User: What shape does this take?
Amino acid sequence: MSGVSSAGADERRSFAASRLVAVTAHSTLLHTEGPRVDVERSARHVRQDGRDTITIALVLRGTQYFEQGTRGGRMAPGDISVTDSGRPFLIGAYEDYEEIRLSVARTAFRTHVGEPEAYAGRLIGHGPLNTLFATYLRSYAALVPGMTEAEAGIAVEGTLHLFRGLMGAPPGDVTADALRSLAAVHIERSLHDPGFGPDALYRALCVSRSRLYAAFADGEGVAAAIRDARLDRAHRELSAPAHASDSIATIMYRCGFTDASVFSSAFRRRFGTAPRDLRTFNT
Assistant: This one.
């Protein structure tokens, strides 16, 4: 990788990455699978090569980190970062990883997204819209080798417009209904995780804790919404013939509950019947 210094954490094996590189007049795309590595772009690199690109990186596998100025953080699969080649940065992977990096000219980023200085060093935690962006970027990576320059240009513009939508408006401008809708999607995807709660939700949605709680103020609150979603899924599975062979305990754990008495009491309060009675009624 030119313009940076890199070092593998394990000197006993050389850095051997599988990499797809697609260079067009509009962008450079790297789809990389490799071992743990640390990469630094120093002020000397910036002065020497004069590169002037903005890079959007999507983590597909493994845990990474990045730092640019006073921004950065630890990245998990699904997280997205933005780096500016015109400033020093550090990036790396704690373990074997897979990622996609799309680099575009500063002028293109400014035209289709916004001022690069406002985005450089930003970390976008995994959320519902990240999945959509990841699907688009994966598709672009797979198809770009066969594209014409004109087709690649259209695809890059589409990627940047989608990224701008992903970044969204400031949290205060998002309506409560829209935030609840996004929250509901993420809650449904995370019900299997017993540790998933309000803190994980506001971080995933990239909003403040107070903004999330305000969006659920008309109901019983965020924690209650997550609990009820778990119970609703359990009710659906206990009632479904497709899950007739699953034990109540299996369904309970699959919906994120770890205590049978807590699950049974909450289920009875919400539906007026015990899980076992519902299962008996439907068999």
Remarks:
- DSSP finds twelve helices and eleven strands in the chain.
- Residues 112 and 160 are 6 Å apart (CA to CA).
